[in-house]
Design brief:
- There is one protein chain.
- The chain has 4 domains: 49 residues, LysM domain (Membrane-bound Lytic Murein Transglycosylase D, Chain A); 165 residues, Jelly Rolls, CATH 2.60.120; 83 residues, Immunoglobulin-like (Sandwich), CATH 2.60.40; 192 residues, Immunoglobulin-like (Sandwich), CATH 2.60.40.
- Helices cover 7% and strands 42% of the residues.
- The protein has 3 helices and 40 strands.
- By secondary structure, the chain is mostly beta strands.
C-alpha cells in the first residue's frame, strides 16, 4: 500500500521558503565577515589589488575564487570585489573602563583581554579608560583616555611588516620593536605609521607618544629612537616631507598643517619626593612642580605591571586625588606637558596603598578643646577592628612622640601628667589577619588640643560631637543607622563641617559611615562603619555628656 501523504498548505510552504531564505541571507552575511569591499577602477588587476590590500600578490587567487572572476587582468570598472582581510594578529593585552568597538569588518562588537583583532577595526576609549594592544613582533600601542583609533593597515609578511594607525582624537603611547636583520637574507625594516588629521609619524623602532587635541593640533614626543614627523594637510607646502625627531625631543604640528619647531622634552618629575596622604576616603599624591609644565599626564597601574593601567588622567597641578583603589602595590607614572602640549619624559614610582581599616573618629577632647593634665582621649570603635593605636606629639608631623599607646583593646586612652601646652593626637585602627597578627590602617589626620594643669576633671565639659580632620574642599555624605548593615538608616545628610552632633539622638547604639566628595565632584567609597552610643538621660555622666564613655575614664 502506498504511504498516505497530506498535501502541504500554501502557508506552510511559504513559511519554509521564508526560513530557508533567511538562513541563506545569514550565511551570506557571515561569509562577508573578514572581507572588505573594493570598487573596481580602470586599470585594476587582481595582482595589484592583492598587493595593495594584503601586502603580497600571492593572494590574487583567493580573491579570484571568492568573486568568481574569470580574467584577473580584466576587471569591470564600477563592479564590487570582496577582498580578504589579513589574519588577525593584534592582541588585546589589557582593557580598563569604557572601551567600545565603533566599526569592524570582522563583525566584532566588543573587546576582551587575549582577543585577536585585525585591520579595519575602529575603537573608542572613554574617559579615564585604557586599552593596550600588542602586535606580532611585540610592538605595543597604548590607547589613552578620550581617544578614537582605527587599525587602517596591519600586514605581517615573512620578510617585513606594515602597520598604519589612524588617530582621530586623543593620545597613543607607542613602543615599536625594531626589525632584526638575519644574515644572508634580504629583509626590509618594519613600517609603522600613525596618521592624524594633521600629521604623519613614521618610525622603524622607537618609543614615542602622539596626540590629537580637540583643536586638531598634533603633538609628538620621542623618548627612544627617531620618529619622522610631517604634515598631512594637502595645502601644506611641506606635505610628504618629514622632520627627524630624535630621542629627547618633541614637535607640534598645528591644525593648519604648519610644522612647529623641534624642542627638548621636559624632564621627568621627581617622584622620589612624592608626598602621599592615604585614608578610606581618598588617596592624595603630590610631587614637586616641573618648571614650564602646564599639566601632567598620570597613570596608575595595577601591581608593578605598567601595562595594567587602572587610572589614566591629566591634572593641571602637580598633585592628584584618587578614589576606589584597593589596598596593595601600584605603579605611578607621571609625565609633564609643556605649553605647546608636547608630553615630556616619564617618571615611575612604586606606590603602596593602605587605607583599611578606616581610622576612628574623635570624641574627646573636643576639637581644639582643653583638658587637665590627666587627659582622656576617646574615639569611635570601627567595625571589624581588633585594636587601636593612639599617638600624641607636640609636633604636627609627629617626629617626636610623647605617647605611643599601641594595641589598645578599646578606642580610648588616659595620658597622665601631661605638661601644660599645645599638642596633637591621632589614631589608627587595627584588624586581625590570617596569621593572627594585627594589620594597622592609616592614621587619622592629627587634631590639636591644649593641656591646662589648672583644669580639673570636674570642670571638663564633653560636647556630644563626633569629629575628624581632613583636607580643605572635602564634603561628606553622612549616614547613621541603628544596625551595622544600614538597613535602618535614621539620619542622612551632607556635612558642611567635619563633625556630627549627637545631642538630638534617642538613647541607643548607632553606626555611622561617611562618603567623601571633593570640589571636582569625585566621590569616594563608603567607609567602614564607626560605632557610638547615646546613653539615656538617667544614665548621663555628671558632666552632661550623652556619649557613652569607656572604662578608661571611669573611676578606677
Amino acid at each position: 500500500m502506498a504511504p498516505h501523504t497530506r498535501p502541504m498548505h500554501n502557508g506552510t510552504l511559504a513559511l519554509i521558503i521564508g526560513c530557508l531564505m533567511l538562513l541563506a541571507s545569514i550565511h551570506a552575511g557571515a561569509e562577508e565577515l573578514g572581507y572588505r569591499t573594493h570598487i573596481v577602477e580602470p586599470g585594476d588587476t587582481l595582482y595589484g589589488l592583492a598587493k595593495q590590500y594584503t601586502g603580497t600578490k600571492d593572494a590574487w587567487r583567493e580573491i579570484q575564487l571568492r568573486n568568481e572572476v574569470k580574467n584577473p587582468r580584466r576587471l569591470k570598472p564600477g563592479s564590487e570585489l570582496l577582498i580578504p582581510l589579513p589574519s588577525a594578529s593584534v592582541t588585546v593585552i589589557y582593557i580598563e573602563g569604557d572601551v567600545q568597538v565603533l566599526d569592524s569588518a570582522a563583525g566584532i562588537t566588543s573587546l576582551e583581554i587575549g582577543q585577536k583583532i585585525q585591520e579595519e577595526t575602529k575603537v573608542s576609549v572613554g574617559k579615564n579608560s585604557y586599552l593596550s594592544l600588542e602586535f606580532a613582533d611585540g610592538s605595543v600601542v597604548r590607547v589613552m583616555s578620550d581617544s578614537t583609533v582605527r587599525l587602517a593597515e596591519v600586514r605581517e609578511q615573512s620578510k617585513t611588516a606594515t602597520r598604519k594607525l589612524e588617530l582621530e582624537r586623543g593620545t597613543l603611547d607607542v613602543s615599536v620593536t625594531p626589525r632584526k636583520h638575519p644574515q644572508k637574507r634580504k629583509y626590509k625594516p618594519n613600517s609603522f605609521e600613525v596618521i592624524t588629521p594633521g600629521a604623519v609619524a613614521a618610525v622603524r623602532g622607537t618609543r614615542f607618544n602622539i596626540a590629537v587635541s580637540p583643536e586638531q593640533k598634533t603633538t609628538s614626543g620621542v623618548t627612544e629612537g627617531t620618529v619622522g614627523i610631517g604634515s598631512n594637510k594637502s595645502n601644506s607646502r611641506k606635505k610628504n616631507q618629514s622632520l627627524a625627531v630624535e630621542a629627547g625631543f618633541g614637535i607640534p604640528v598645528y591644525a593648519d598643517g604648519k610644522v612647529g619647531a623641534i624642542r627638548a622634552l621636559l624632564p621627568a618629575p621627581q617622584l622620589e619626593q612624592l608626598e602621599s596622604t592615604q585614608n578610606a576616603d581618598f588617596v592624595t599624591l603630590k610631587w614637586p612642580e616641573t618648571s614650564n609644565a602646564k599639566a601632567y599626564r598620570i597613570q596608575v597601574a595595577k601591581n608593578t605591571n605598567p601595562e595594567h593601567v587602572l587610572r589614566n588622567l591629566e591634572s593641571t597641578e602637580p598633585r592628584i586625588r584618587l578614589a576606589g583603589l584597593a589596598d596593595g602595590p601600584y605603579t605611578l607614572s607621571v609625565r609633564p606637558i609643556d605649553p605647546d602640549d608636547v608630553v615630556g619624559f616619564e617618571a615611575r614610582q612604586v606606590l603602596h596603598i593602605k587605607t583599611s581599616p578606616a581610622y576612628p573618629l574623635f570624641i574627646q577632647p573636643g576639637k581644639g578643646g582643653k583638658s587637665g593634665p590627666n587627659a582622656f582621649f576617646e574615639c569611635t570603635p570601627v567595625s571589624g577592628a581588633d585594636g587601636y593605636h593612639i599617638q600624641i606629639s607636640s609636633e604636627r608631623d609627629f617626629r617626636t612622640l610623647i605617647v605611643d599607646a599601641d594595641n589598645l583593646k578599646a578606642c580610648g586612652y588616659t595620658a597622665r601628667q601631661l605638661p601644660s601646652g599645645r599638642y596633637y593626637w591621632r589614631v589608627a585602627a587595627k584588624s586581625s589577619v590570617a596569621d593572627g597578627a594585627l594589620n594597622e590602617g592609616p592614621f587619622s589626620l592629627p587634631t590639636e588640643f591644649e593641656i591646662d594643669d589648672a583644669i580639673t576633671e570636674e570642670e571638663i565639659h564633653i560636647h556630644p560631637t563626633l569629629y575628624w580632620e581632613d583636607q580643605p574642599g572635602i564634603r561628606y555624605l553622612v549616614q547613621i543607622s541603628k544596625d551595622e548593615k544600614f538597613s535602618q538608616v535614621v539620619k542622612e545628610f551632607e556635612a558642611s563641617e567635619n563633625n556630627v552632633k549627637t545631642d538630638d539622638f534617642e538613647p541607643g547604639i548607632y553606626f555611622l559611615r561617611l562618603r567623601a566628595r571633593d570640589e571636582s565632584g569625585m566621590i569616594g567609597n563608603s567607609t567602614l562603619p564607626r560605632q557610638f552610643e547615646i546613653k539615656s538621660r538617667a544614665d548621663e555622666a555628671s558632666d552632661g555628656s550623652s556619649v557613652e564613655r569607656t572604662w578608661f575614664d571611669k573611676t578606677k
